[in-house]
Amino acid sequence: MTGGKLDKILILDFGSQTTQLIGRRIREFGVYTETLAGDADLSDILGDGKNGAGGIRGVILSGSPESVYEKDSPAPDRRVYSCGLPLLGICYGLQRMNYDSGGTVESLPQREYGAVKVSVTADSGALSANGALFLEAAGLSGREFTSWMSHGDSLGKLAPGFIQAAKSETGFPAIVFHNEKPWYGLQFHPEVTHCEKGTEILSAFVFTSCRCEKSWTMEAYVEEIRAELASRVASAPVLLLISGGVDSSVAAALLLKTLGADQVHLMYMDTGLMRKDETAQVRTALEKLGARHVHVVMCGEEFLAALRGKSGPEEKRKCIGDLFMTIQEREVARLELDDSYFLAQGTLYTDLIESGKGVGRKARVIKSHHNVGTPLVDAKRRQGRIIEPLDKLYKDEVRALGRLLGVDEEVVRRHPFPGPGLAVRILGEVTREKCDILREADAIFVSELKKRRLYDEIWQAFAVLLSIRSVGVAGDVRKYGWVLALRAITSADGMTADVYPFPSKDLIEISTLITNTVKEIGRVTYDISSKPPATIEWE
């Protein structure tokens, strides 16, 4: 994608849910990353082993939900082992390197998961110069730190030339180096924010082992993606499905600034599943971006009718996705756009990998996204008529891009909102009554967070209407009201999340305000689950 002038790290994706997080961390260093499927043909990618083709200075082998000893488990092009470039294997990537080099990998009696202590045990004198320098640059020599692990396999016999440099508190290899080649292996995930020394470890590989120079910026990304858009789209019309959230708003700004207001059509669908006053706010925000073709489709009745009787999370998501595209095609026909039009979406990489649409062919489905996994969207994707200019970015990067493009701060700092809207925040069947109840409660929650100056401390906050009622008392009258759950989390990227530690006073006052204002709600709870094991949304 990017010219050969930039130093870059090539990432081979074997299906890990945190693969793109590796790239995000390295981009924060100012170094470009390119991610390919783990088993991609590298014949035209790898160069002479010094700079690589197109400026590649090193290769990272990602984690995976697979096991190397299983039939058809993903394996890299063998050229990666003979190219001479520094290699970093992470979790499955380390196991793959060891297995492919003649070592063994075995199933653990009990998987290592979460925070695990790691002790660096090898004396620097027993390691190659590369290994010793790596440990020194990462600040790991002779110390203990807390890693983040997620694996059920471990190295059995080390391959010839490999040496163990650190072990986990349970006694299994945690860091492995090759004594002759610039190969480094980690049994944990340095890309996850919970991993102590993770940033230093990745930095050591990028700058000390690969000797990369900082040359990657958001300005460089904008220049690259705008050139790519102009080349691919030419003069064809582009229709962006916009929700009014951060992602689609930033995508709109990027398209408008690149292609011009006459070429870009923005379609907003009021599905009846939106937040309070959403439609009016979206129209105002789009006008500020200079949009000329704004098509607002009021289709709440259709969505509520289609959702009637459906209660399963995936069932609701699929229903919404299919209807979303059906209405879009109908409305596009009414617009009389040229058949060559492109469909644009504000899809992020987190949407793709959670839907099993990541770069690696082994990505697992966590949940369907209305604009990613439906048959209709897949058909559009196969036709090559979908543009997703943000599909390599994480939420915080999208916010940075929005600020660079001049998107209003009120929009840029807005908390994420799921594409299926309130339908996945109403557990069970979705009805108009439930939407109205949740809409009002959620508006109170968010408004109070802003008044109390807590909103910007939180990555995402919202309310969830549960599918149960609870007995209560209102005055002297027995009350049987809905149960509402409040959710507020902190996160750096949306891939992992911690519970926001609410001051008790604020949480109690907000809960009381909701039950006093929204008479249908009889009880309020607070969700204290982290991600993992939970997801951010309930459905």
Topology at a glance:
Blueprint: E1 8-13, H1 19-28, E2 32-37, E3 56-61, H2 79-82, E4 87-90, H3 92-100, E5 105-120, H4 129-138, E6 144-155, E7 162-168, E8 173-178, E9 183-186, H5 198-209, H6 218-233, E10 238-241, H7 246-259, E11 264-270, H8 278-288, E12 293-298, H9 300-307, H10 313-335, E13 342-344, H11 349-354, H12 375-382, E14 386-387, H13 395-405, H14 409-412, H15 432-451, E15 460-474, E16 477-490, E17 498-499, H16 504-517, E18 521-526
Parallel strand pairs: 1-2, 1-3, 3-4, 4-9, 10-11, 10-13, 11-12, 13-14, 16-18
Antiparallel strand pairs: 5-6, 5-7, 7-8, 8-9, 15-16, 16-17
Helix pairs in contact: 4-5, 6-7, 7-13, 9-10, 15-16
CATH fold node name of the largest domain? Rossmann fold
Domains, number: 3
Number of helices: 16
The H-level CATH homologous superfamily of the largest domain, spelled out, is: Class I glutamine amidotransferase (GATase) domain
Principal-axis shape equals globular
Adjacency order of strands in the biggest sheet: 2-1-3-4-9-8-7-5-6
Beta-strand content bin: 15-25%
Q: What oligomeric state best describes the polypeptide chains here?
A: single chain
Structural class: alpha/beta
Rg calculated over all Cα atoms: 25 Å
The first-level CATH class name of the largest domain: Alpha Beta
- Give the overall average pLDDT: 88
Which CATH-level-2 architecture of the largest domain?
3-Layer(aba) Sandwich
Poorly predicted ranges (pLDDT <50, ≥5 residues)? Answer: 353-357, 366-370
Helix content: 25-40%
User: What composes the largest sheet?
Assistant: 9 strands, mixed
Could you tell me how far the N terminus lies from the C terminus, measured between alpha carbons in angstroms?
35 Å
Count of individual beta strands: 18
